[in-house]
Amino acid sequence: MAAQDKFSPVDVLSEVEEKFEMLQILNEKGEVVNEDLVPDLSDDELVELMTRMVWTRVLDERSTALNRQGRLGFFAPTAGQEASQIASHYALSEGDYVLPGYRDVPQLIWHGLPLTKAFLFSRGHYKGNQFPEGVNALSPQIIIGAQYVQTAGVALGLKKRGKENVAITYTGDGGTSQGDFYEGINFAGAYDVPAIFVIQNNNYAISTPRELQSKAKTLAQKAVAAGIPGIQVDGMDPLAVYVATKDARDRAVKGEGPTLIEALTYRYGPHTMAGDDPTRYRTSDEDSDWEKKDPLVRFRTYLEGKDLWTKEQEEEVIEKAKEEIKAAIKEADATEKQTVTGLMELMYDEMPSNLQEQYEYYKGKESK
Ligand SMILES: Cc1ncc(C[n+]2csc(CCOP(=O)(O)OP(=O)(O)O)c2C)c(N)n1
């Protein structure tokens, strides 16, 4: 064998990169293109998955409107990403932990976080970060990538306690350029912990396109360097996302370690509601190409073909979502305003002497 054949890093790279093909089960038309991989979900479960995605789309629309009315604070739109978010979460079991990024409020809601809490979080109210007992989740992470390191730690804790549970986390394509991303997946691999790392590759980190983010052909292949399995899935296909996450979970609870999942998706709206204008960096053609891949449209078609979904059913879900959102925002409005002293009391059982003076100052101010 010629020395050249043994030394071909360029060939190794292209061979590895070619192996990362996007998994799809349901195509844009709602047709099954991968019969062998259709998950074993009951009719009720399929309907529930659709219900959650429709509900989540309504939450996005209403949150956008409430933000514009000045009734919500921070909000990162989610429309377009429902399959990546909801179908991955749907593969979890009771007791699993969710470590979301700022765009991942829907997974928190479906993990049991009361919607009022999510609205209070949006308003920066500390009560929005106080999760009820049993909601195994952290608050949405604002520091890009930090949740990947934390997830390795939470998953290590689950392993040490002998739990048959996983920790799942989410970041965007931009997040994969952060040091924390690599530290998280590497540590999780080294300690074989039950973690699932999801990359929601929506093509943009605010206005920076995916192509400028990394020379890697796929983001899933970053798993190789950490020695863990990685897979790229059609993030607009709820069945593919579900199957990839379920498989990752099954292996994780068997002690086989973490998985990295890259879901190819798109956010229809702006990065956040704080002034981003996507028309400055995306074309309307690109938007409409992605809208044709819409997860709700293809799943609706699939379910209608099985006689499991009707227009009336969808209307009912939409109306119910609107009612629940209305009630939750009302409850958020009725929550007492946060105060400086309230926050201080929350932090200290006994007020440290160096803060006592400030505490008294604000107590006086607040009583006026
Ligand atoms: C460590 C860090 N650097 C920069 C920022 C500012 N920032 C907020 S969102 C964002 C883009 C993230 O893009 P991506 O990871 O692709 O996620 P997406 O918003 O598309 O879901 C940046 C740079 C931050 N929050 N944290």
Automatic annotation (TrEMBL):
<dbReference type="Pfam" id="PF00676">
    <property type="entry name" value="E1_dh"/>
</dbReference>
<dbReference type="GO" id="GO:0004739">
    <property type="term" value="F:pyruvate dehydrogenase (acetyl-transferring) activity"/>
</dbReference>
<dbReference type="GO" id="GO:0009083">
    <property type="term" value="P:branched-chain amino acid catabolic process"/>
</dbReference>
<comment type="subunit">
    <text>Heterodimer of an alpha and a beta chain.</text>
</comment>
<dbReference type="InterPro" id="IPR050771">
    <property type="entry name" value="Alpha-ketoacid_DH_E1_comp"/>
</dbReference>
<keyword id="KW-0670">Pyruvate</keyword>
<comment type="function">
    <text>The pyruvate dehydrogenase complex catalyzes the overall conversion of pyruvate to acetyl-CoA and CO(2). It contains multiple copies of three enzymatic components: pyruvate dehydrogenase (E1), dihydrolipoamide acetyltransferase (E2) and lipoamide dehydrogenase (E3).</text>
</comment>
<dbReference type="InterPro" id="IPR029061">
    <property type="entry name" value="THDP-binding"/>
</dbReference>
<keyword id="KW-0560">Oxidoreductase</keyword>
<dbReference type="InterPro" id="IPR017596">
    <property type="entry name" value="PdhA/BkdA"/>
</dbReference>
<feature type="domain" description="Dehydrogenase E1 component">
    <location>
        <begin position="51"/>
        <end position="340"/>
    </location>
</feature>
<dbReference type="InterPro" id="IPR001017">
    <property type="entry name" value="DH_E1"/>
</dbReference>
<protein>
    <recommendedName>
        <fullName>Pyruvate dehydrogenase E1 component subunit alpha</fullName>
        <ecNumber>1.2.4.1</ecNumber>
    </recommendedName>
</protein>
<keyword id="KW-0175">Coiled coil</keyword>
<feature type="coiled-coil region">
    <location>
        <begin position="311"/>
        <end position="338"/>
    </location>
</feature>
<keyword id="KW-0786">Thiamine pyrophosphate</keyword>
